[in-house]
Amino acid sequence: MTPSKEEFEARLRQIGAERYHDRHPFHGLLHGGDCTPDQVRAWVINRYYYQHSIPMKDAAFMSRVEDPDLRRIWRSRIEDHDGTDTNEGGIRRWLRLAEAVGLDPDYVASCEGVLPATRFAVDAYVRFVRDKTLLEAVAASLTELFAPKIHAQRIEGLLQNYEFADDSSLSYFRNRLKEAPKDVAFGLQWVLDHADTAEKQDAAAAALIFKTDVLWSQLDALYGAYVDPARIPPGAWQPGEGLMMQRAS
């Protein structure tokens, strides 16, 4: 017997309650003002790799979609990140955050110095969306169900604890508070409608777990490299590299 849509949605939300990366200790440090400037910079550099890969993930998804209505709806996700004539876009907003914390945005955009584990995790997510079923690909995006809470916490924590934080530098998070609910409302309903067997529900739930693992593993890598104890792998960003003053000189 296939669980009802209500039961299935509750299952998905429970995955977020147990596994979303808002529970990771790095976010406690970041939001509580306990990160050093270099730890904040390391987070900005590595998270950028995820941000810049999201439109490629969505383009890979759209290349497999035959339904023009689904492509039309999904297209706005790419525009939200890449920008349009009237929308700066999330990637440029993230680079403004990079500049606010003292990083050269060109260095951050180059993706040099990204931790190997960050690169592996994010690339695995892009491949997952490219290769798995459409249902699994959409279900993996449902971590957006839980994102507004962490964005609100981040805005509050950064404003309270860091001098770089202001409306300009935090504009990425403020905009996601408006964009993510639109995306997730459609994505959730699409998954609920298309996961019409117990087997499909299991596959969708596994996809969401995979995505929470992708997010969690990025923070594990960041914590291990730059927090306790700091073990920066070869080729990853070293404190002092890629700063604005280097570009000015």
TrEMBL record:
<feature type="domain" description="Thiaminase-2/PQQC">
    <location>
        <begin position="10"/>
        <end position="220"/>
    </location>
</feature>
<keyword id="KW-0560">Oxidoreductase</keyword>
<dbReference type="InterPro" id="IPR039068">
    <property type="entry name" value="PqqC-like"/>
</dbReference>
<keyword id="KW-0884">PQQ biosynthesis</keyword>
<comment type="pathway">
    <text>Cofactor biosynthesis; pyrroloquinoline quinone biosynthesis.</text>
</comment>
<dbReference type="GO" id="GO:0033732">
    <property type="term" value="F:pyrroloquinoline-quinone synthase activity"/>
</dbReference>
<dbReference type="GO" id="GO:0018189">
    <property type="term" value="P:pyrroloquinoline quinone biosynthetic process"/>
</dbReference>
<dbReference type="InterPro" id="IPR011845">
    <property type="entry name" value="PqqC"/>
</dbReference>
<comment type="similarity">
    <text>Belongs to the PqqC family.</text>
</comment>
<dbReference type="InterPro" id="IPR016084">
    <property type="entry name" value="Haem_Oase-like_multi-hlx"/>
</dbReference>
<dbReference type="InterPro" id="IPR004305">
    <property type="entry name" value="Thiaminase-2/PQQC"/>
</dbReference>
<comment type="function">
    <text>Ring cyclization and eight-electron oxidation of 3a-(2-amino-2-carboxyethyl)-4,5-dioxo-4,5,6,7,8,9-hexahydroquinoline-7,9-dicarboxylic-acid to PQQ.</text>
</comment>
<dbReference type="Pfam" id="PF03070">
    <property type="entry name" value="TENA_THI-4"/>
</dbReference>
<protein>
    <recommendedName>
        <fullName>Pyrroloquinoline-quinone synthase</fullName>
        <ecNumber>1.3.3.11</ecNumber>
    </recommendedName>
</protein>
